[in-house]
Amino acid sequence: WIPDDEVNECPICNATFGTAWMRKHHCRVCGRVICATCSDNQVQLPSYGSTLQRVCDKCFALQSHGQAAMLAEDLASNKQVEKVLKDELKQKSEQVHQYRQLLREMANSESVLPGVGDGAEESLEVPLATPAEGFGASA
Questions:
Q1: Which residues contact residue 1 at a Cβ distance below 8 angstroms, ignoring those fewer than 6 apart?
Q2: Dihedral pair phi/psi, residue 56, rounded to 5°
Q3: Residues 40-44: contacts with CB within 8 Å, 24+ apart?
Q4: How far apart are CA 124 and CA 106, in angstroms?
Q5: What is the pTM of this model?
Q6: Which residues 6+ apart lie within 8 Å of 47 measured at CB?
Q7: 24-63, pLDDT tens digit by residue?
């Protein structure tokens, strides 16, 4: 941060400070003292919270370039995420189609599960493995 009293002219355009209408301003990025014309830009800086801060033309260009690069990187990342999500959605849609087809086949076929849908479900006995016979038990 350069003190106001050490600067007599704008380092960018060389305008002389000293008149009432030629005020000194500090760039919030580099700390240089510049005139209003050369600090007519404002950007949001994380160290200053959410309010826009005055910056010189040079720092504005650097900030804008950096923000553009970050936006381009974010866009590329978002496109990757979008592709992955679309692929997963396609797989899930195919699975839904397969399950619907299976359910239709099961509903149309008495040979798969006799009595399904006629109230005979309670009479179906399915043998269950006991804990002693459990899965992976050796004989």
A1: 26, 31
A2: -75, 165
A3: 43/67
A4: 16
A5: 0.44
A6: none
A7: 888 888 888 988 888 888 888 878 888 888 888 888 888 7
